[in-house]
Design a protein that fits this description.
- The protein has 392 residues and is α+β, with helices and mostly antiparallel strands.
- It folds into 2 domains: 149 residues, Aminopeptidase, CATH 3.40.630; 184 residues, 3-Layer(aba) Sandwich (Aminopeptidase).
- Helices cover 30% and strands 26% of the residues.
- It has 11 helices and 16 strands.
- This is BioF2-like acetyltransferase domain-containing protein.
Length: 392
């Protein structure tokens, strides 16, 4: 069927109106909901049994920033809350608005983030009800790159297409004992490093022959890597996306603002950017990752043109190694899986469901063929909700 254009009219996406049912009502997130939603988030995703006022307040303030006060958005929030018949918060669905383009047509996209229900007030209806109400909005496609297994169970019957490769995470280990120590310290921040680090260094010295440097010899001496800043990354990334039929459409400074928000994430260190170039200075690819010496680097975005994924991945790994990281982790993509297989000490795991739903046949076909740019900045793993420990 022909692709329906959405270029005409204002960019604002109409939020669904209040929907009432025997299980309660669903409506857009409002300021007065933030503290209850923040408390539910901390209990569900940070396992906080005893909530501190500071943690709730910081989480609520961050949710206000991304769900109620995003730049350029007016009107009701796209995020939704479910209120049960007793008037209590039953569930929450985080939604961020974005734009895609396909064959010159602009599409309105909903990026789905946290989906959660209060087990004390919900009887299994909040999640499906929130998704059904979201699907009644004026979005052309709905996507997520961080669905847990419970969310997968809700979404698959609603005709979401699963992208299996994007559901995997990859980890490249540079120094195994130091990486294990970094993981333990992140899980239990109170553990003194004086206990963990000396033993890790001793073990890694013994394992050096087995693991060694992860840096691959370049296939061409004419390729080089250089750091860049956020402004340069925002300027050059869109030019590398022409290989995708279904790709994001960032306008009016949206991408620089998105990178500013992404830089607020704290769990894995500062955000670093780099590019890979040929001998003429032409960019072949670029990357962005969070990292700091002694920590595990966390990939935010990697993109390359044509056949240059290998060189771009080499630049990413070299940058994390030179920074002093003990390893690097990230989301997989089908376009650089063959290059990942060429590295030693790379492991894969399930990291979160990546799914897309659309009623437009051309969108469905692009997703089926893997011709979509998704994950990273077109997901919600860049938000502080994905990893940060609030209130510390």
């Amino acid at each position: 069927m022909p692709l329906v254009s959405t270029n005409a009219g204002p960019e604002k996406v109409a939020s669904p109106s209040v929907l009432d049912s025997q299980h309660g009502s669903v409506r857009p997130l409002a300021a007065e909901d933030l503290e209850r939603v923040a408390a539910l988030f901390l209990a569900k995703f940070r396992r906080r049994r005893h909530l501190r006022d500071r943690a709730v307040a910081e989480t609520a303030a961050y949710m206000r920033e991304i769900y109620l006060d995003p730049a350029g958005q007016s009107g009701p929030s796209n995020a939704l809350v479910q209120i049960n018949p007793q008037g209590d918060l039953g569930g929450f669905l985080g939604v961020l608005k974005a734009r895609y383009e396909l064959n010159g047509t602009t599409l309105k996209a909903a990026i789905i983030g946290p989906l959660m229900a209060d087990p004390g007030t919900d009887h299994g209806s909040a999640g499906p009800q929130l998704l059904r109400v979201l699907h009644q909005g004026e979005f052309d496609l709905y996507l997520t790159d961080s669905a847990n297994r419970v969310s997968l169970a809700f979404a698959r019957p609603m005709k979401y297409q699963l992208l299996p490769v994007h559901c995997l995470g990859w980890t490249c280990i540079f120094r195994p004992a130091a990486m294990a120590a970094a993981m333990l310290h992140r899980r239990w921040p109170g553990l003194p490093r004086l206990i963990l680090d000396p033993g890790a260094r001793a073990f890694d010295a013994l394992a050096k022959r087995r693991f060694g440097s992860p840096i691959q010899p370049s296939s061409s001496h004419r390729v080089h890597h250089e750091p860049m800043d956020a402004a340069q990354f925002a300027e050059r990334l869109p030019g590398l996306l022409s290989d995708y039929a279904l790709r994001p459409r960032w306008e009016n400074g949206e991408l620089p603002r998105l990178l500013t928000l992404a830089a607020e994430k704290r769990a894995d260190g500062p955000l670093h950017f780099g590019g890979t170039y040929d001998e003429t200075g032409k960019m072949l690819g670029c990357h962005a990752f969070y990292g700091q010496a002694g920590g595990i680097a966390n990939l935010l975005q990697i993109q390359a043109s044509g056949s240059h994924w290998g060189a771009t991945l080499d630049g990413l790994v070299a940058a994390a190694w030179d920074l002093g990281c003990v390893g690097i982790t990230g989301q997989t993509q089908s376009r650089f899986m063959p290059q990942l297989f060429g590295y030693r000490n790379v492991f894969f795991r399930y990291a979160g469901g990546t799914m897309v739903r659309s009623r437009i046949a051309e969108v469905t076909e692009a997703v089926r063929s893997g011709d979509i740019f998704i994950g990273g900045l077109m997901g919600d793993r860049w938000t502080r909700l994905s990893s940060d420990d609030f209130g510390h």
